[in-house]
Amino acid sequence: MESRISKRVGAIAPSATLAVTSKAKELKAAGAPVIGFGAGEPDFPTPSYIVEAAISACSDPVNHRYSPAGGLPDLKEAIARKTLRDSGLEINPNQVVVTNGGKHAVYNCMQVILNAGDEVLLPAPYWTTYPEPIALAGATTTVLPTSEETGFRVTVDQLNASLTERTKALIFVSPSNPTGAVYPKEEIEAIGKWALENNIWIFTDEIYEHLVYGSSTHYSLPTLVPECADQTVILNGVAKTYAMTGWRVGWIIAPEDVAKASSTLQSHQTSNVANISQQAALAAVSGPLSAVEEMRTAFDRRRQVMHSMLNAIDGVSVLEPQGAFYAFPNFSGCLNRDIAGRKVETTLDLAQIFLEEIHVAIVPGEAFGAPGYARLSFALGDNDLEEGLTRISDLLNG
Ligand SMILES: Cc1ncc(COP(=O)(O)O)c(C=O)c1O
Q: The domain containing residue 258 runs over which residues?
């Protein structure tokens, strides 16, 4: 019998990261001492000056009404100022569209730019959401696998090898979810020049721009290759920088025709993002970066603990994450053996055994196009982090 669900939507895979988090929450609610390495969100509360701005916005009737579908003009101007402050990139507020989180920004730019049959280059390991909005736009994803040898960074040779006459866009994420890789300046320049020469759109996801460690620096691609600006869409949001995942505010910075089309799409789709959230985002992007600096210091400490504890486990190896808040260890040395009396063949099996036997949630690499690996977030308390890694180590070394 034909499915009642449309073929388009029936083909979407549920978000593996949200699935792990919700299973872990279920177990926790049932009283299990679960430690979650699955979540992609800071464990800090939203800074109080942002919350205060939202509280006062609630009592202003102007915020009780519809507002422009593409975003509050004040917020679009503040995003333009923030982009100049943080990236050194001069933009016009008309290039900004405020969306319901970064995910919505991703969905809209795929709808606005891609046609059926277009191909989009997606370096793997990739953030699990990307292939689905590409498919919903009727386009196809060309996965470009990367490994530890290149620091999980795609090379221009790989881009050239995958180029066809249908290639329309490249997805570029630095700092990366799930690998924590940060591209150095020269590699970003080379990728930008390649896109320019081949007339390829670049979707550059900068949502982790403020979370870089050690000697790594974040560069916004169009500042290094300004000629790319007319074929670049920047994706960003308040979620990770200001611990605001639940507020749902993201944005697109695009050439004006693309921004206008995206706003029109949004006018029939969601209308404006909740005004209260937009007012909170306005306070966030207009305010200081001190709260994210505090979070970054904590993440940096946890990153180093995670890196050394994981590398000390037999059969596990991991690169030191340079950005975001994820480590992406290689668990292939733990596969094809018995763990806790159970046969483990894949990292999906391993994740299930971790959850059931030691109440530790991780996201298997299969969710990111990288079987054999797993993603562990270090956005959790120091004690939980050490306890969770000790449980993994005891199980695998025992
Ligand atoms: C690479 C990347 N881009 C975008 C997002 C979207 O974040 P949100 O929709 O919460 O703003 C995420 C969230 O996990 C992400 O990891």
A: 48-286
